[in-house]
Amino acid sequence: MSVSEPGPAGSPPTSSVEARSLAAVSELRVTRRPRGELIELVRRRKLLIAPLLVLVAFVVVGLSAPYLARLSPTETALGMKLTPPAWLADGVSDRPLGTDQLGRDIASRIIHGARLSLMTALVGILLSGAVGTALGLLAGYYGAWVDALIMRIADMTLAIHIYVLAIVLAVVWGPGLRNVLLVAVFLLWSRYARQARAEVLSLKEREFVVAARALGVSAPRIMARHLLPNILPSLIVLSTLQVGFVIVLEATLSFLGAGIPPPNPSWGVMVADGRALIASAWWVSTFPGLAILLVVLSGNLVGDAFRDRLDPRLRRL
Amino acid sequence: MPRYLLSRIIQAIVTLWLLTLVAFVMTRLTGNPLDVLLDARATEEDRAAVAQVLGLDRPLAVQYAIYLRDAARGDFGDSFKTRRSALSTVMERLPWTLELGTASFLVSLLIAVPIGVITAVKRETTIDMAGKVLALLGQALPTFWLGLMLILLFAVTLGWLPAGGTGGLAHLVLPSITLGWFTVAGIMRLVRSAMLDTLAEEFVVTARAKGLPELGVVWKHALRNAMIPPLTYAGVVFVALLGGAVVTETVFAWPGVGQLVIESITFRDFPVIQIIFLLFGAMYIGMNLVVDLLYAWADPRIRLAEGDTRLR
Amino acid sequence: MFGALRRVALSLLLIGVLPAAAAALAATAPTGTLTVAYATLFDENLNPLLGPAPSKVFYDVMYEYLVYNDPQTLKAEPGLAERWSMSLDGKRWIFSLRKGVTFSDGTELTAEDVKFSLELLERKESRWPLRATFLRVEPKVLDRYTIAFDAKEGGVADLDQTFSYFLGLPIVSKAHYDKVGDRGYEEHPLGTGPYRFKARRAGDSVSFEARSDWKAHWRVGADWAKHGAFKEIVFRKIPEVATRVATLRTGEVDIAELTPEVIREVERAKFPIVRSPDSYVPMVTFHGVWLPAKSGYDASLPWLKQEVRQALSLALNRREIGEKFYFGTASPAAGPHWFHPNTLGWNPAWKPDPYDPARAKKLLADAGYPNGFTIPLRLFTMPGTTELPALGEAVAGYWEKIGVKTNLIRTEWVVHRPDLVKRSFKGATVYRGFPQVEPVTVWRLAYHSKGDFGEREDGFVDSVIDTLAGTVSGKERETLARRLGDFLTSDAATLPIISASYLYGINPKTVNGWQPTRGKYPDRFEWVVPVIRAH
Fold this sequence. Notes:
The complex is a heterotrimer.
Chain A: H1 15-29, H2 34-44, H3 49-63, H4 65-68, H5 106-142, H6 144-159, H7 162-173, H8 177-203, H9 207-214, H10 219-255, H11 267-273, H12 283-310
Chain B: H1 2-29, H2 34-37, H3 44-54, H4 60-72, H5 86-91, H6 94-121, H7 126-140, H8 143-157, H9 169-200, H10 202-210, H11 214-226, H12 228-232, H13 234-243, H14 245-252, H15 257-266, H16 270-298, H17 300-307
Chain C: H1 2-28, E1 31-38, E2 67-69, E3 76-78, E4 81-86, E5 92-97, H2 111-122, H3 131-134, E6 137-143, E7 146-151, H4 164-167, H5 174-187, E8 195-201, E9 205-210, H6 221-227, E10 230-237, H7 241-250, E11 255-258, H8 263-268, E12 273-287, H9 306-314, H10 318-325, E13 331-332, H11 357-366, E14 374-379, H12 388-401, E15 405-410, H13 413-422, E16 427-433, H14 440-447, H15 459-470, H16 474-491, E17 494-496, E18 498-506, E19 511-513, E20 529-530
Parallel strand pairs in C: 1-10, 1-11, 14-15, 14-16
Antiparallel strand pairs in C: 2-3, 4-5, 5-7, 6-7, 8-9, 9-10, 11-18, 12-16, 12-17, 12-18, 13-18, 19-20
Helix pairs in contact in C: 9-11, 14-15, 15-16
């Protein structure tokens, strides 16, 4: 059961439309390099500078968290509980964004949370991407019953009520990062699979693939050396669109008690734990909420623009 | 076509059966309902007696067999908590979720379609970006947070709308905005992309070149075509909304199946958990099947493609 | 002539007086709807066969009991039973019922109904928690208004003056239940209380309305006539506390169950907060196998040493927790688990441990842990006390300052309980206790080696509890209980943290007054006094 769009990044989930719309894309994209595209993109659309900067800042902060945050994100200090941000009355200058319900410094927690969210998103995307791409390649290349089987497995994973799964996992394993990742993979792998499959379906009949087959190159080699590099760019674009999804998923799961447990300073936990305090101590959930908002928006805007760029139909306009 | 139809239906049935197995295993993994139903002071005898009444004293395989046999006849067992039929327990809550889902879907369309059209027409301008941001807000903010903020703003501070529960139309507004906003981005992308397609078509370019009024071109022709993709996926989006209503229903105290999910798992109410799981699974698989069949019927290449993509 | 004058005077008098009298009567008849919001209604069922659920918040407006507690002192008071006595040999309790009490369908309450109510809960499928205790007695109808409970084996002396078991027995109408059967009863439950069941919406609400013959009601009649009451009570389920507070602020709800987190918001919005005082005590409990002779005994567990537990207690700043975590609604607590002020065995000399991290560190070093150690801490919510996991984080924070690292494990009671029974969990939990009117049963569960949880298996503990079970004299029982309590306190078997209250926000525009009971998951909604508007 998808908790958001019905299919990969908003595109319809069935084979036909995928095959049609991406066939044209594949034709022209064989020779492009992602980095060159990116630079070209920014040159054309100045508006994208802000989101890109946000994403870069996110990664930098995430990677350098221990050096950036002076105060401990997990040390409690009930005496300083719910201190407002520094610029408000009762605020303290060395707690710039205030403290939470156990007296922990929010700024430090957001910085450390960036690292946790970054890791969660990356691992989640890598896992679902790996599983999805592999299965999609197989489905597209072999077709027939392999294709049908994989598509039905995809149907089944999406038919599973995701909240039932998440809560049951939390009950059985206890809340944790494992649960978030498993739920993310359940939801996302089929997006990668469908995309990969659709592209492979059209690439399959291209000359260089037919030639390779005629020469007796083994299937795995064809998939790895000829097909994969060509479908990779679009999968990367797909990934930028999923970063936000995983982060918000983690927040929602924390709300249900099925995500990453306290005292980990993940943004999702911070927003979920602070939700009863919105009216009396808004800073506890609003700052991490803003962080999530910025990262998700930026990821989506950049990813969308990138994808638009890759769509040859738009060039005609 | 008949062959494709038959094979897809068989696949759907097999998937459903697998889902019953998954549901059964998942519920048994959550622990012992007796620990919830009975107080800490209950004796072993008490527990054994209640276990027998609930059918939990039999071996797992037997329990599963009984479950399947009864389910085939439409009997999904009795709720452990209320001792009334699990099916009626779900059915009495389902209309609420359907109501919320429908309203949310409509809200979603109401927001997504205009944004999709406008951002397509004004692509790559600030308006495009602003429209995208607006659409994305529903996915960039955790649903529970969005709901609570809406309550704080419109119910508590402004007093325009009630804070929770059911009642009249006013009670439906905030929950459906909260739930509906989530699918806005996806629908918007579909609309936008369809609009872009249509706008690039020959005769539109020609019409513009001929100097026909913009409004007529855009709104009369392009819009009609832009609505097709989202509407074809209405069913699947709708089912997704229903499944995702858990959070919204909890925040707004909406007594639908979403809250029942949490209640039944908290209570380890196996029959109810299983039937909810099956219900949503069946809805999704059914909806998917219908959409696929429609496409296959419309486009013969698809049925051949999916059934016959062997290497030559 | 005087006759006619008198007649006219009389009619004038009547014209003047009657409406005023009518108005006076109308002003105190039950009016309005009281809406109470809880995080969960658990079962929403009113058939005692299916159990009371952890909270029977709405049972008490419809059902009545043989004996009631005083809301503050918890002492027994007459309820449906006017008086009771125990036979000299301790084998029989006799209860004399109040005459003229009726169910809301008009039929009179008799001893047959009491017998039936007990037997209902003894049925095989019953989920009533005290079923095992009920099975120890056999009810006998002596006459229409007298019922006796005979001990099936041994005696019933340990059921003591407070008669807590029968406090919780809802009295059901035998005639009615026989007529409608199990399933029918759920749709049409019947009680002797001032309210009768009106409607139920699954997952949403349960509602009641006042009986039309309320004036004759033995319990509320006089009070309602004087203070007024609500005509209808609706119990609503609103799981999110932020939404509950929102509905209180918008006026959709009149009484809302609160958590400590939202106290500030409710206070700032100028809504009074009502507390059920000293209702529960969050505490740290320690688990592992205590007796070296038993299998699974692990001598390396640091918390098996009394000094270590003492140190962990001294590390907690209880005053700060009460003031900062509970916003002043809780105060430092003392005494072992299941011992509370005003109940059996309480020793007023017990004082809360002071906050002394320096001494705590020294104790640890002396006990052989100068560098601290790591302890698993399981956190779970219990009904009505959802702040326990957050409190656990605070506790972990204090322990960290003396060098003890905590491994926080977020779980559920339902997952943890089997491990407790199997004695397989080794670590600590943040749990809670609440005042028990008759604590001996719980002590047996919690401390006795044969008990399910056996928090402190020990020869001494076993012998005291066994002796208590057979002792009749009140004074002897008190002495024994206190000895047990003293031992457990000095042993630091559990660490009480603070004494907390259940918190409720009330809407002053609609609710004039309400005081919930201390200790139980609160009730007494039949006593909520409405704000009467002048017309």
